[in-house]
Design a protein that fits this description.
Elements: H1 2-40, E1 45-51, H2 66-82, E2 87-91, H3 101-111, E3 115-122, E4 133-135, H4 144-160, E5 167-175, E6 180-187, H5 200-204, E7 209-216, H6 220-226, H7 229-247
Helix pairs in contact: 2-7, 4-7
Length: 249
């Protein structure tokens, strides 16, 4: 009987040791997995690039069509930023395609990039109106500080290349039962709270956004300068320089 008890005790001890070893192995495996996840964690800066239009949404038109030019610049920016391992580049939608604003906002909020850059062009009934606009989020925005700083870097990059690109705020007020609107564009020095709406991309997304309007498609001088491969490449290069400068701070 004593021998049976001793064998039983030894068996129980062996089982206990095996259980401890199994638990230790599982703990080691879990720790290794967590370490691997930490080492493989994506620490790059996520930049989301947006063509304001595209596909069957041609945008504004005049001497040129807006979406074609935007696609060219955004594609060149995507290629330039992809060369820098510091950045992960996301596009709201692929070249040659369109995306409505609701879907675009949803995608950006799901992607959770560090910053969004959106490119558009302007239109005016007056062909003498020309020039660039760099729009930062309005002063009351949660992301105003980051957006303004990034917009400032774009303005600096373009100024260094001989282009005037002021940083501004954009507001609008719907009129005529919402079928039209009155625009208000003010200098970034004007921090008044107008209580008006701004771009939906800025109002509805949960990340800093900067919107650049490259030119007026109704301006012969603007389109004559920018609407070619060389100038589009220059535009893309300057925007990318601004992005890199902003993140080198």
């Amino acid at each position: 009987m004593k021998k049976k008890k001793k064998r039983k005790v030894r068996t129980m001890r062996l089982l206990a040791v095996l259980l401890v070893l199994v638990l230790l192995a599982e703990a080691a495996l879990f720790a290794a997995k967590k370490l691997s996840q930490t080492l493989l964690k994506d620490t790059t800066i996520h930049i989301e690039l947006d063509n304001a239009h595209g596909g069957d949404q041609s945008g504004v038109s005049g001497y040129i069509t807006e979406d074609d030019f935007n696609d060219l610049v955004i594609t060149k920016m995507t290629e330039l930023l992809a060369e820098d391992k510091k950045f992960t580049v996301i596009r709201t939608h692929e070249a040659g395609t369109a995306m409505n604003m609701v879907s675009k906002v949803e995608k950006i909020n799901e992607d959770r990039p560090d910053i969004v850059f959106s490119l558009q062009c302007s239109w005016s009934p007056d062909e003498n109106v020309s020039g660039m606009h760099i729009y930062a989020e309005k002063p009351s925005s949660r992301y105003h500080k980051e957006s303004l700083a990034f917009a400032g870097k774009i303005s600096e990059a373009y100024a260094a290349a001989g282009h005037e690109a002021p940083v501004q705020y954009y507001y609008y007020t719907p009129i005529k039962n919402g079928n039209a609107f009155q625009e208000r564009i003010v200098s970034s020095d004007d921090t008044n709270d107008y209580g008006e709406e701004t771009f939906t991309l800025m109002e509805k997304t949960n990340v800093p956004v900067v919107i650049a309007s490259q030119m007026y498609v109704t301006s012969e001088s603007d389109t004559a300068y920018w609407n070619n491969e060389e100038a589009a490449a220059e535009a893309a290069r300057l925007y990318c320089e601004a992005i890199k400068s902003y993140y080198d701070k």
